[in-house]
Amino acid sequence: MSTECDLVVLGLGPGGEALATGAARAGLRVVAVDKHLVGGECPYYGCIPSKMMVRAADLLAEASRVDGVAGETSVTASWAPVARRIAEEATTHWDDQVAVDRLADAGATVLHGTGRLAGPGVVEVTAPDGTVTTFRAARGVVLNPGTRPARLPIEGLADTPYWTNREVVQVTDLPGSLTVIGGGPIGAEITQVMARFGVRVTLLEAGPRILGPLEPEASSVVADALVADGVRVMAGVEISSVSHADGTFTVTLGDGQVVHSDRLLVAAGRTPNLDDLGLETVGLDPSARSLEVDERLRAGDGLWAIGDVTGHGAFTHVSMYQSAIALRDVLGEDGAPAAYHAVPHVTFTDPEAGGVGLTEQQARDRGLSVRVGTTPLEQSSRGWLHGPGGTGVIKVVEDAERGVLVGASVVGPAGGEILGHLALAVHAEVPVATLRTMIYAYPTFHRAIESALDDLG
Ligand SMILES: Cc1cc2nc3c(=O)[nH]c(=O)nc-3n(C[C@H](O)[C@H](O)[C@H](O)COP(=O)(O)OP(=O)(O)OC[C@H]3O[C@@H](n4cnc5c(N)ncnc54)[C@H](O)[C@@H]3O)c2cc1C
Ligand SMILES: NC(=O)c1ccc[n+]([C@@H]2O[C@H](COP(=O)([O-])OP(=O)(O)OC[C@H]3O[C@@H](n4cnc5c(N)ncnc54)[C@H](O)[C@@H]3O)[C@@H](O)[C@H]2O)c1
Q1: Where does this protein hold FAD (predicted)?
Q2: Structural domains in the chain?
Q3: Is 189 annotated as ligand-binding?
Q4: Is 308 annotated as a binding residue?
Q5: 270 alpha carbon to ligand 2 midpoint, in Å?
Q6: Is the distance from CB of 184 to CB of 147 less than 8 angstroms?
């Protein structure tokens, strides 16, 4: 069967869903295709369920801080309400009917099926029953296929029932012990959640430190917090094999050390869903790690790509940002082109670790004349009076030649919120001289930004 339309949106992550909705509302004949759930990884297996877990774990940690500050507490942790909220409130038991209806109400044709390019403007969709429909899109195709958990080539791993983010957000009973492979954002957040719910966690990171892309100062504050939560953090490890027998996982390290646990979570990066998308039919490389796009998100004639596969930051806010720009281009409207000099990111550990723009090392690698300023949050008035849980750091990176911040990091309670101030400064290239003339309310956490600016010299 062959069908004419204006636009096919292939993959409905957060950005694809929003773009398909906007294009349909603007009157285009839109075919919106997803092989799994409309909305993608974020609402069902990513941001939303993981942050519900984080919220619960943070409450436990805050309760434990009452002692010595505001009296005494005794808290009995229970996973049941967390699992219930995720299943019932966040994901409706991993059912996307509400999202499908919302998109259909906007005027799009919503299909559950696997899409594949079959030439410029042509997409073949294979429905779950095997029926294939070919769509010819007059205006073009938007690709938003996202990523899947990377499969590690570790001996024995593939034969074990390990968890990825897909399984861990559906857990109803916590294990006694857990090994986590990968100290990126997923590994760090889930590790802390599990530890705070009483699971004995070992975190194995191949790189020299966890959260490697963050400033070293930020990464070390989070690593210390995990250790304080009882986590065994092992960085710089090489994993030589994994096995599973009698309900126990055994992870053997290159130096001969062995780690046993009831469960294993692999959170060691993502693989882009580009390999089976028919990219070769439009002259693109299916083995690429990312799709090259211009500042309007064009990957070719009548072809746009948005989200994680563009390689500009695997975050929901990047997918949504790109979605709005690509939609304008699809509709032939003008607007600001995409710019990535101030992409913010927050790892929702406690303390939260936020960053924006360049790290000190990235700025130096670009040959900028770099000045940095740092300040420990616990030495600020607010950090000190906050007491337990008030640890953190603020670091600013200045391009001294231009007198503007090109990067900043904030680790601390609500670090992601404090980051907003610095994200604006980096985005709008507010002169450091102007930032120095601001009045910073006393005693807020964000007032410590002034101390970090002072430290620039
Ligand atoms: C555990 C976890 C926690 C996270 N936490 C955060 C966070 O706190 N903040 C944040 O900003 N980001 C977070 N992320 C990242 C965030 O989920 C992604 O950046 C976000 O989902 C955007 O991805 P995307 O738009 O590229 O597509 P995705 O959300 O990956 O969706 C892609 C969609 O395309 C579909 N698809 C793929 N191939 C095909 C095909 N051939 N045919 C049809 N459909 C196809 C898939 O089924 C999927 O629904 C987290 C991720 C994980 C895994
Ligand atoms: N709060 C957030 O915004 C948030 C939270 C979770 C995920 N995310 C997004 O999802 C993406 C995927 O997250 P992720 O944590 O899976 O990936 P990641 O690529 O960010 O981190 C993976 C980590 O695993 C390590 N690793 C790789 N192979 C290993 C091995 N064999 N043994 C031990 N360690 C190994 C890497 O060195 C790295 O530190 C991230 O890039 C991020 O953009 C964002």
Answers
A1: 51, 115, 308
A2: 2-39+96-148+271-330 (3.50.50.60), 157-268 (3.50.50.60), 344-454 (3.30.390.30)
A3: yes
A4: yes
A5: 7
A6: no
